[in-house]
Specification:
- The structure is a single chain.
- This protein has one domain: Vaccinia Virus protein VP39 (Rossmann fold).
- 34% of the residues lie in helices and 22% in strands.
- It has 10 helices and 9 strands.
- The longest helix is centred in the N-terminal third of the chain and has 15 residues.
- The radius of gyration is 18 Å and the shape is globular.
- The N terminus is likely disordered.
Length: 264
């Protein structure tokens, strides 16, 4: 029988950085069509031919990808901690009644155990130096056999490996905070890149089985976007996402995982 998650004695993480009235995350996506459509492309590739009853877009901001998820799920819940983002979502999603909005933290999702069959997490882990708690919470709400689509910023991407090698070092397995010292001193929220092998290990410990990997935003470059334009870049991206996946080439890694049913 499903039950609500027991309350943790640990304090909740604060994830309301996008409530700053000076910052509009929707405006951030102006002139980022390549990145946006690359992400939709990855989702379509990972979910092609599948249909779900209820999906949850965790930390989905104003619903940028929640709107896209309705192609794969009868119902979608946007679970977002920022009230400002949810206010923007009311306008952005006004013509998409399949998407409901709830103010929730990724570490404290107010859903019953095993009640969801698809969870999407995109551009969230870069704010989580230690995402074990959030990943375990996602495992809790997913039903056995449920699907988890996860994207995260890749510290082991090709250019980074060259940079580390030039200094005679290996890419660290622990999260790397890429904030400037000024931003750290100002107390801005963490912004980290993760090593894919470390994240996959945490996911396995949380009860997930890896099914598929994609390399994302492989051509993310202001110069390339200016020279080639969106359509040629996306045509190349379509070829490169699966081709470069085994090498964790791009700055973004996409995973499709299955919630283990606990049986051997």
């Amino acid at each position: 029988m499903n039950r609500m998650r027991e309350k943790s004695s640990k304090p909740r993480r604060k994830s309301d950085q996008y409530d700053d009235p000076k910052y509009n995350y929707k405006d951030y996506w102006d002139n980022r069509e390549y990145e946006h459509y690359s992400e939709e492309m990855a989702i379509k590739r990972l979910l092609k031919g599948r249909r779900y009853k209820h999906a949850v877009d965790v930390g989905g901001g104003y619903g940028r990808l929640s709107k896209y998820l309705v192609q794969f799920s009868d119902n979608v819940t946007l679970a977002e901690p920022s009230q400002q983002q949810l206010d923007i979502a009311k306008i952005y999603l006004k013509d998409v009644p399949q998407v409901k909005q709830k103010k929730l933290q990724a570490a404290d999702l107010n859903f019953k155990d095993g009640s969801m069959d698809l969870v999407l997490v995109v551009r969230v882990l870069h704010h989580l130096p230690d995402p074990e708690r959030e990943l375990k919470e996602i495992a809790r709400i997913l039903k056995p056999g449920g699907t988890f689509i996860l994207e995260f910023a890749n510290d082991a991407h090709f250019l980074n490996r060259i940079r580390y090698a030039a200094r005679g070092k290996k890419v660290p397995k622990s999260p790397v905070d890429i904030r400037s010292e000024i931003n750290k001193k100002a107390g801005e929220i963490a912004f980290v890149n993760h090593h894919p092998k470390t994240i996959i290990k945490i996911l396995e410990q949380a009860g997930f089985e890896l099914e598929a990997v994609l390399s994302g935003s492989n051509l993310r470059s202001p110069r390339l976007k200016k020279v080639l334009g969106k359509k040629p870049l996306l045509a190349l991206e379509k070829v490169l996402q699966p081709m470069l996946a085994p090498f964790y080439f791009g700055p973004s890694v996409w995973l499709r995982l299955r919630k283990s049913n606990g049986k051997k």
